[in-house]
From TrEMBL:
Organism annotation: Streptomyces hokutonensis
Organism superkingdom: Bacteria
PROSITE patterns in the cross-refs: CLP_R
Coiled coil stretches, renumbered: none
UniProt keywords, alphabetically: Hydrolase, Protease, Repeat
Lineage: Bacteria, Bacillati, Actinomycetota, Actinomycetes, Kitasatosporales
Span of domain Clp R: 2-189
Name of the protein in its database record: Clp protease N-terminal domain-containing protein
GO biological process: proteolysis
One Pfam assignment: Clp_N
MF term (GO), any: peptidase activity
Length: 189
């Protein structure tokens, strides 16, 4: 599948690996792919994000903050935390208690200070789902190659924190399709 990736898509995967390493995470996850997409300039995904009102300076910090908040909740999305609240489980209280005993970020699952077992980075099920969905989206649009815009589309359609964070900022699958494949001046080249 990687041979079908464009230069921009390959750069996103490499960027995701770098984000994973910097964060000390055990595996590349969908959130690392999102952060790497936000780093891109001059690509179809970066154009689409800008067209939907996410300026590079603003988008990075607000998205990082939202992803960090989710990591503190052990990766639970807000909708999952709300569902648990409906059952009488206060995720904020659980996080506060765990952090009181074990320190801030104890539920994040990061591996800071730990050695990697091998030179290769593994991809979590969530990241693999993004890559697989990207392929399916490219095929559905009759695109010969998988670009970074396909990663972005996949992140918006798959359930989880990255899609929720994007939707909160007006980046939805439908909005992206209009920008990337629609008619008119906002179509990505």
């Amino acid at each position: 599948m990687f041979e079908r990736f464009t230069k921009d898509a390959r750069a996103v995967v490499q960027g995701a690996v770098e984000h994973c390493e910097r964060s000390g995470s055990g595996a590349v996850d969908a959130e690392h792919l999102l952060l790497a997409l936000l780093d891109r300039r001059g690509s179809r995904a970066s154009f689409a994000l800008a067209a939907l009102g996410l300026a590079p300076e603003e988008r990075k910090e607000s998205v990082r903050q939202a992803l960090g908040d989710a990591r503190r909740r052990a990766g639970l999305s807000r909708s999952e935390a709300d569902a648990l609240a409906g059952l009488g489980i206060d995720v904020s209280e659980i996080v506060a208690r765990v952090e009181e005993v074990h320190g801030v970020g104890a539920m994040s699952g990061d591996r800071k200070g730990k050695e990697w077992r091998s030179g290769r980075r593994t991809f979590s099920r969530g990241a693999k789902n993004v890559l697989e969905k990207s392929l399916r989206i490219a095929v559905a649009h009759r695109d010969r190659h998988i670009g970074d815009e396909h990663f972005l589309l996949a992140l918006t359609i798959l359930p989880g924190v990255p899609g929720e964070v994007l939707a909160d900022r007006g980046v939805t699958y439908d909005a992206l399709v209009r920008v990337l494949h629609g008619e008119g001046e906002s179509k990505a080249g």
